[in-house]
Amino acid sequence: MKAMDINVKHIWNRTYDLIKACWSEVLFIQSLSVGLLAFVYLLVIFAGMMLGKHASSSLLPIFRDVDIPFVIIAVLLPFILYTGAIPLHYGIRWFYWQAAGGARMPLSSIFACYTSPALMRRCLDLHMRRVLFDLPRILVCGVLCLGIHLAYTYAEDNMQPGFLYDMLLPLDIFLITVMVLVCILSCAEAKAASYIFAENPNMSAKEIMRTGRRLFRIDYMRSVRVLFSGSVLYVLAPLVFPLAIVIPLNNIIGAIYFREVYKGRIG
User: Fold this and answer.
1) Helix/strand/coil (H/E/C) assignment for every residue in 72-133
2) How far is the first Cα of the chain from the last one, in angstroms, to the nearest whole number?
3) d(CA 65, CA 111)
4) What confidence score (pLDDT) does residue 95 get?
5) What is the pLDDT along the chain (267 residues), one digit of tens a residue?
6) 63 - beta bridge partners?
7) What is the pLDDT of residue 114?
8) Is the CB of residue 36 less than 8 Å from the CB of residue 85?
9) Is the Cβ–Cβ distance between 87 and 113 less than 8 Å?
10) Got the DSSP string for the chain?
C-alpha cells in the first residue's frame, strides 16, 4: 500500500479488524487494568477506615480530619502500586505492537517484562525518562494556565465594561485551550517510545525516546490527526463509549500507526 493511501480511515479499519480478531484478549487486558484501578481506590478507602478518617457509610471518597499520616499513606499506596504496574504497562503495549503486526501472542506475554530484573529496570528507566520529558512542559502549561486565569480574574474585578472587558473570557478560554493542546501533543510525542521499546527492548532508554520522537515527527500532522481521532473518544466516553473501550482503542490505534511508520510504510 502506498504511503498516501494510509490515512486515518485505514488505521481505524485495521483497528476494527484487530479488535474482532482478539477481542477476548483485549477484554481481559482492560478488565485487569480496571481491576487494578479499583483495587487502588479500595485500598485508599480502607486506609481511611482503618485510621478513622473515612466519613461515609458507603465507598465514596469522603474523608474528615485529614492529617499528614493519612495523606502520606493515601499518596504512597497508589505510587507503590503504580510503580509496580509499569512493567505491565509496557507488556500490554508489547502485546498490542505484536498484534498490530499480525502475531497472535498468548495473554501471558503481557507479564513478560516481569521475567527479568534487567528488563524491569529498563522499563522503569524508560518510564522515568518519559515522565521527565513530559513534566517540564506540563508544569509550564499549568503555570501559564494559572497565570492567565488569575490575570482574567484580576482584570474582571478592576476593568470597566467595554470591548476589552467582553474579550477577557474568550481570550482566557482560548489561551488555556492552546496550553492544554501543547501539553497533549507533548505526551503524544513520548507515547511512541513505549512501542519502540516493544520492538527493541535491548535499546537504551535514551535512544528509545529519541527514536519515538523521530517517528512522531516524520509526518507530524498525520500523527496528530491519527492520534487525535482516538483521543476525541475520551470526550465522548461519558456519553457514548465506556471508558474501558476507549483506552484499548487508543492503544491499538497507536500500535498500528507507529508500526506502519517504523516499518517505513509512511513518510
Assistant:
1) HHHHHHHHHHHHHCHHHHHHHHHHHHHHHCCCCCCHHHHHHHHCCHHHHHHHHHHHHHHHHH
2) 12
3) 40
4) 92
5) 444 456 788 888 888 888 888 888 888 988 888 888 888 888 888 888 887 777 767 777 777 777 888 888 888 888 998 899 999 989 998 999 999 888 888 888 899 899 989 889 988 998 888 887 777 777 777 777 777 777 777 776 776 666 555 666 677 777 777 777 777 777 777 778 888 888 888 888 888 888 888 888 888 888 888 887 777 777 776 655 566 677 888 888 888 988 888 877 555
6) 54
7) 92
8) yes
9) yes
10) --GGG--HHHHHHHHHHHHHHTHHHHHHHHHHHHHHHHHHHHHHHHHHHHTT-B--SSSS--B-S--HHHHHHHHHHHHHHHHHTHHHHHHHHHHHHHHHTT----GGGGGGGGS-HHHHHHHHHHHHHHHHHHHHHHHHHHHHHHHHHHHHHHHHHHSPSSHHHHHHHHHHHHHHHHHHHHHHHHHHHHHHHHHHHHH-TTS-HHHHHHHHHHHHHHTHHHHHHHHHHHHHHHHHTTTTS-HHHHHHHHHHHHHHHHHHHHTT---
Backbone angles phi, psi at 159, to 5 degrees: -90, 150
Which grid cell is 115? 521475567
| Cα distance between residue 175 and residue 145, in whole Å | 7
Least Cα distance to 185 among 211, 145, 210, 221 occurs for 221
